[in-house]
Structure formats: structure tokens, C-alpha cells
Design goal:
Layout lengths: L2 H29 L16 H7 L3 E5 L5 E4 L1 H5 L3 E2 L2 E2 L2 H13 L3 E7 L8 E9 L5 E7 L1 H37 L4 H33 L7 E4 H11 L1 H7 L2 E6 L4 E4 L1 H17 L6 E8 L7 E8 L21 H6 L6 H11 L3 E7 L3 E9 L30 E2 L2
Parallel strand pairs: 9-11
Antiparallel strand pairs: 1-2, 1-7, 3-4, 5-6, 6-7, 8-10, 9-15, 11-12, 12-14, 13-14
Helix pairs in contact: 5-6, 6-11, 7-9, 9-11
Length: 408
């Protein structure tokens, strides 16, 4: 064989051996297991999840990449967490600052809800839990803030309401002094001073009454209240006012109804409703006070209604009439000594009895206020039955008399 042929054969054999070696190496590499790289997940310290569940505040544990590792139900209900992320930008920014600087920080937040829904107010504290975890604790301050706003509004309103009669009395006193030589003017000014003094006394009395009903819990030590007596007393106390305004008062409805609660408080509530009906009715109008029972059991709701055919309430005013110091017709209310606290007291008395107060009204046709109170009579221990001897005759069954009209 010539040298060129030998060289070609050697080259072909070498290429074949190279291909075989390459194939063998590739196969060997595929057979070897690929190396794996495990990323260590952040571990929440033992017991943290259990503590978050029982916390009365919102609690969130945030990982090193701003991911939410643990969050209790309060945090989600307040809208702090959505999915696995912090949904409040200010809070997320504070988490990053704490992670970077390692200091405990706090912030006041206003969480805006959907349209026409009141915002929530929170006080949040953010602290490092370890080198990679951040703990968020947030306390809902919404109720406390609203109470404080209500207190400020009440103080401002009461200051204004007290200032008016006090200022009037002061001016009238100066007028009396200047008119010392004019007996007729003195009598006129003195009469006005009496009216303003009575208005001031009524206002102070209503403030005291509101404070008293807010402090008392009628269901802590309840009594069985005869609704008939409550209605009759409320009408009798307003007899003079009704006569002066030429208003007819009528007691109607179902007799013999009872509830568990506080008779004095319920009397105040019904009395305020009757007084309100008289003030906002024209001469010759009629006010009807009635009691009704929705069902027949020991846990019925007793409805006490006070209806009039007076001037009525505009629809735009209905949502505000139970606010403190709010008056539908300010001039009429002031002329009759109204304080603007009567319906607020009614609403509170209904609430602490477990009930509610509502109103229906039509301008020019009148209004009906409904005080709905649960009877709660199932809570009363049953009365022991007395055994009657066979030869003794018990009292005959009595039927409840119809309600009587009380005309003023």
C-alpha cells in the first residue's frame, strides 16, 4: 500500500475513535445526577402563628422579600394584606425602612375603603423579628377616633347652646337695670328672663338625663315594666303642654303588654316622643300613643308608636333627626323650649334595651315614631302556681278593657 493510502486509513480510524470517545463521555455525563441548589426558605419562629391568632390587634410577619409569611384574620379584614403582599404602600415603605435600619417604628394610617364607606384609622408598629423577618402590629383606632370626634362635637354644641340663653339673660339683666324707672318694661324683660332661665334649666336637665342613661344598663338589673303605665304617665306629664297647644292626646293599641327593662328610662323615651309630636303639630291636631305586640311568645317585640298629623319631616332631614342638638325647624323648636337632645336620648334608651327607634314621616301629613323594645320575658323566673282546693272557686277570667281616650 502506498504511503498516501496508509495516511488516509489512519485518519479515518482516528476520526472514528474520536467520535466514539465523545459519545461515551456525553452518555456518562447524562448518567450523572445534576447538582441541585436549595434556596433556604425563611422560617417563622415557633409559636408566632399561635400568638397572632389570639391577638386582639392585626398581626403580620413579613419575609426578606416583602412577602407575607403569616397574617391573622384581623389584618386581612382591615385590608392590610392581600394575597401574599402588604396592600398599604405607607406600611410597606415602613417595613423596608425597619429592615434597613433595624429600629422599631410606628405610624398612624388611614385606610380608605370603597366609595361611600367610612375610612378606618390604625396605629401600626413595625419591628424586626430577626435578621430577615419583620413583625407588624396594628391597632384599630376607628371607634376611639369617632368617639373623640363625637365628644368634641358635643362639647362644641353644648357650649353654643348654653351660651345662647346665658347671653340672653345677661342682656336682659342690663335692660332691666336701664329700665328701672319703667315698671312695664321691667315686667316685660323679667318675663323674658324667666323664659330664658326655663330654657337653660331644660337644657341642663336634658344633658343630665343623657349622661344618666349612658351610664345605666337597664338589663343589668331589669324589672318587669307595665307598658300601660308608661304610656299613661307619659301622656299625663304632657297634659298641660297639649292643652296649651290645643292638641288631643289619645292612648290606643293593645293593653296588658310588658317588657323587661327600666320603667323610668322608657317613660323618658315615650315622654320625649310625645313632647316632640306636640311641638311639631299645629293647634287642633291629634297625637296617638299606642302599644302593639308583633307575635305571641315570651320573647316578643313590643312596639310603642307615637303618631301625629303635624307638619311632617322632609326626607332629607330623616337621617339626621336623632343627632344631638339637631332640629328640623329651629325656630319652632326654640319657641317651644326644645333642646335638640330629646330624640338622641330616645335612640340611646332604645339601644340599651336591645331595641331600636325608627320614623315614618310625610311633609304636611304627619309623623310616626316607633320604639321597638324586646320583651325578654323568657328571662324571668316562672311564678309558682298556687294549688286551689277542689271545693274553692278561683276568680273568674277577666278580659282586658279597651283603651280609653285622654282628650286634652
Amino acid at each position: 500500500m502506498n504511503p498516501i493510502g496508509v495516511a488516509i486509513v489512519a485518519l479515518v480510524i482516528g476520526l472514528g475513535i474520536g467520535v466514539l470517545l465523545t459519545w461515551a463521555l456525553l452518555r456518562a455525563r447524562r448518567a450523572e445526577p445534576s447538582p441541585t441548589f436549595e434556596i433556604a426558605e425563611p422560617v417563622v419562629p415557633a409559636g408566632v402563628a399561635e400568638v397572632l391568632v389570639v391577638l386582639p390587634a392585626a398581626g403580620v410577619v413579613v419575609g426578606p422579600h416583602d412577602e407575607v409569611l403569616q397574617a391573622n384574620a384581623i389584618a386581612r379584614s382591615l385590608g392590610l394584606v392581600r394575597g401574599s403582599r402588604i396592600s398599604v404602600p405607607e406600611l410597606l415603605q415602613l417595613v423596608r425602612i425597619v429592615r434597613r435600619e433595624g429600629d422599631v417604628r410606628s405610624v398612624d394610617l388611614q385606610i380608605r375603603q370603597a366609595a361611600r364607606v367610612a375610612s378606618s384609622y390604625l396605629t401600626a408598629q413595625v419591628a424586626p423579628l430577626d435578621e430577615s423577618l419583620i413583625l407588624i402590629l396594628a391597632d384599630d383606632q376607628t371607634t376611639a377616633r369617632r368617639i373623640e370626634e363625637t365628644r368634641r362635637d358635643f362639647v362644641a354644641n353644648i357650649s353654643h347652646e348654653l351660651k345662647t340663653p346665658i347671653g340672653a339673660i345677661s342682656l336682659l339683666a342690663e335692660a332691666v337695670e336701664d329700665a328701672a324707672e319703667d315698671p312695664e318694661a321691667v315686667r316685660r324683660f323679667a318675663s323674658r328672663m324667666g323664659i330664658e332661665s326655663a330654657r337653660l334649666s331644660d337644657l341642663v336637665g336634658q344633658i343630665i338625663e343623657l349622661s344618666r342613661v349612658q351610664a345605666d344598663d337597664p338589663l343589668a338589673d331589669p324589672e318587669i315594666v307595665d307598658v300601660d303605665e308608661v304610656l299613661t304617665d307619659a301622656v299625663e306629664r304632657r297634659r298641660m303642654d297639649a292643652e296649651r297647644h290645643r292638641i288631643t292626646l289619645t292612648v290606643a293599641g293593645v293593653a296588658g303588654t310588658r317588657v323587661l327593662g327600666n320603667a323610668r328610662q322608657l317613660g323618658v323615651a315615650v315622654g320625649n316622643l310625645v313632647e316632640n309630636a306636640i311641638v311639631y303639630s299645629d293647634p287642633g291636631a291629634r297625637v296617638v300613643v299606642a302599644a302593639h305586640v308583633q307575635a305571641r311568645s315570651d320573647d316578643d317585640y313590643v312596639e310603642i308608636t307615637v303618631s301625629d298629623n303635624g307638619i311632617g319631616i322632609p326626607p332629607a332631614e330623616l337621617d339626621r333627626i336623632f343627632e344631638r342638638f339637631y332640629r328640623v325647624d329651629y325656630a319652632r323648636s326654640r319657641a317651644n323650649g326644645g333642646t335638640g337632645l330629646g330624640l338622641a336620648i330616645v335612640k340611646h334608651i332604645a339601644a340599651i334595651h336591645g331595641g331600636e327607634v325608627s320614623v315614618w314621616s310625610q311633609v304636611g301629613q304627619g309623623s310616626t315614631f316607633t320604639l321597638k323594645i324586646p320583651a325578654h320575658l323568657h328571662q324571668v323566673a316562672p311564678v309558682e302556681e298556687h294549688v286551689v282546693s277542689p271545693n274553692m272557686q278561683g276568680p273568674p277570667e277577666q278580659t282586658l278593657p279597651d283603651r280609653q281616650e285622654i282628650n286634652q
